[in-house]
Amino acid sequence: MLITEILARNARMYGNETALVERIPALEQRTEITWARFDALANQTARGLIERNIKKGDKVVQLMTNCLNWLPIYFGILRTGALAVPLNFRFEAGTISYCTQVAEAKMIIFGEEFIERIDAIRPDLEPGVSSYIFTGPSEKTPDYAESFDTVTADQKSDDPKVDICITDDAALYFTSGTTGDPKAVLHTHRTLEASAITENRHHNQTHEDNFVCIPPLYHTGAKMHWFGNFIVGAKAVILKGIEPRYILEAVSEEKATIVWLLVPWALDILFAIENRDIRLSDYELDQWRLMHIGAQPVPKSLIQEWKKIFPHHLYDTNYGLTESTGPGCVHLGIENMHKVGAIGRPGFDWEYKIVDDKLNPLGPEMPGELMVKGPGIMKEYYKNPEGTREVLTDGWLCTGDVAKEDADGFIWLVDRKKDVIITGGENIYPVEIEDFLQAHPLIQDVAVIGLPSTRLGEIVAAVVKIKTGRNVSSEELVEFCSSLPRYKRPKKFIFDEVPRNPTGKIEKPVLRKKYGGQSESFRI
Q: pTM of the prediction?
C-alpha cells in the first residue's frame, strides 16, 4: 500500500483522534492535529503544488526544521506524484545549491531559518528552480516566494487522485556527506512502504502506542522509525528540544511509550540523573516500554547503566543506511538483551553477508565488509551510475562498514572502512577503542581517529570530552588504557568537544582536518 494511502486510511478510521503533537518546551508551546486534519492538509498542499505546475516526476526540495507541518507537506509532495527531496537543515548554502541542482528540483519549500542561505544561492539555481514556497510567518515571506498559507488557502481537502504506482520513484534522500559530497539516494514508494512494515514488525507498535520523535525528520532514521506507529494509526510527538528534562516531560505528559534516542541524548539523561539535575519521581514513566538507539555504534556500558535505572524497558539497537531506507536491515531485537553490543541479526525480510575485498564470503569472527539485501534497498544513486555500481551488486548493497559474525549468528560492527587506522601495518578499528574509553566513569563522549606518523603511518588519537565539572589528566587515561594491547593504546589524548551531525554520527573528517597537521609530539 502507498504510504499516502495509509494516511488516507488513518483519516477514515481515526479521523478525530490526535495524529501529531508538536512540543516546543523552551516556548512552553504545545500544538496538535488530528488524522483528518493531517490528511486534509496533505491534500491541500498537493493541490496547491499542482496549481503551480508541479507534475509527476518533478522534484521538490523540502528545507525545514522539525515542525507540525513537516509531515503533511512531505505527504502533499508525494500525492502530486513528484519526488520529495528533504535536505539536512545544517547544510550550508553551497551544499544546498549542490543538492538542489543534482536533484534537478523545480521548487523549494523552506522555513524562516533558511532565508539567508536561499538568498545567497538563488542566482545559481535559475532557471531550474521556478518557484519558492515559504513556511514561516506570512509577514516575513521574501518577495520572490509565496507564503505556504496562500498556497493552501481555499484548496479542496480531498485527494487530487494523481495516478501513482507502488514502483514509482518517491523521494531523493541525500547522504550526510561525512565521507565526501552528499549522494542523492533514490527511493520508490515500495521502499518507503517496506520500511514501515519492517519497523512495525520489529517493535510491535499498536494503535495505542505513542512515539516521541526528536531527531530531524529530513533523515530516514527519524521518519522511518515513526512509520512503525504511522502504519497502525498511532500517535506521535514531535519534540523540539533535547534537554533531558524536556524528553522526560514529553514522555510523562504525553504518556509516550516509545522513544528513539541518539547516544549523546541517552548519555545526557544518565548524567542528569547521576548529578541529580532531574528526579525520576517527578515524572510518570511507567508506560514507557521501549528505548531504542540507532545511527551509530552504541557503547555496551551505556545500555548496562540504562537498564539499572529503567529495568522494565525493552531495548533495541537499529542499524541502517540512507541507501537501505534507514533503519531495520539489521537490528538487535528486543528479545536479545544478552547480546547488547552487537548490531544484531538481519531485519524482517532482509539478509546479509560479510565479504572480503573480492566479495568472497568470510567465516565467523573474520572482519569484512557488511553487505545487505532486502525490500528497502535504494533504486540507485540518482544520475550517478559509477557510484551506483560501486555499492550495488546483484541487488546486494555494500555498506562500507566492517563487521564480523559471532558463533551465534549475531553481527558486530567493527568500524567504517574509511575510518580504519593502519599503524605499523596493523589494522585498528576506532569503535573498539571508543567503546573501551566510554566505560571510563568521567568520560562523556569520545572519538578515536588516526593522525599522520612518519614512522608508523598513523597513530591512534582519542578526542575526549570530560563530564562537566570533572577533571581527568592524560596520564590517568594512559593508565586506564594499559589493559589494551599496546598497539591499540591511544598515543595522544586531546580534550575537546566531539562534533556530531544531527543524527548523532561523529564527524571524524572535521577532527582529522582540525588535528591532522599536528606534529607527533603534540599532546593536550
A: 0.83
